[in-house]
Amino acid sequence: MSKESEQIFNDYIKPVYKNLERYVLNLTFDRALAKDIINDTLIIALENFANIKDKKKVLFFMFGTASKIYKRICKKNIRNVSIDAVSEVFISSGSTDSNYDIQFLYESLAKLPPEQKDAIILFDIMGYAQSEIAEIQAVSVNNVKVRIHRGKQKLAQIMGVKNE
């Protein structure tokens, strides 16, 4: 790849890198694993950059790629979740009670099936539209809605929240 092509790629990546980083940290709860996944994702994105017709969808491509890499790691049971990293990554200030609540939420999220966890993180934590999540996960919008709904139901069950 030429230096010019790499520069064009970097120009597309710079504005979306923080979103990719946040997404992967939300998936893994582990900075070292997140960096590995991000690096692998960037390599794959660079290799496939010329094949991405709509360059505005580079972020979707990278989210989908990072998600696939993460799922592959989970299937191989290589994943070593460090919930203590949640405190370092997501809790910078606040009361002890709110820190505990956030840590409990992320521990509970880690127990969800990967597709449901991805959908909830992208929708509720990162603020993506369901149509955007459908593109990232390569499923229909209705499937995304089902994943979010079932994921929230299971999350409530895990957290001990009763529907009244």
Extract low-pLDDT stretches.
78-91
Q: Classify the fold: give the CATH topology.
A: Butyryl-CoA Dehydrogenase, subunit A, domain 3
Straight-line distance between termini: 59 Å
Tell me the major beta sheet.
none
CATH top-level class = Mainly Alpha
CATH architecture annotation: Up-down Bundle
The proportion of strand residues reads: under 5%
Shape: globular
Helical run tally: 9
Instruction: Spell out the helices and strands N to C.
Output: HHHHHHHHH
What share of residues is helical?
Answer: over 70%
Radius of gyration in whole Å, from Cα?
Answer: 17 Å
Structural class: mainly alpha
DSSP strand tally: 0
For the residues shown, what is the average pLDDT?
83
What are the salient characteristics of this protein?
single chain, 164 residues, Butyryl-CoA Dehydrogenase, subunit A, domain 3
Summarize the helices and strands and which ones pair or pack.
Blueprint: H1 3-13, H2 17-28, H3 31-48, H4 58-75, H5 84-90, H6 96-109, H7 114-125, H8 130-137, H9 141-159
Helix pairs in contact: 2-3, 2-4, 3-4, 4-8, 5-6, 7-9, 8-9
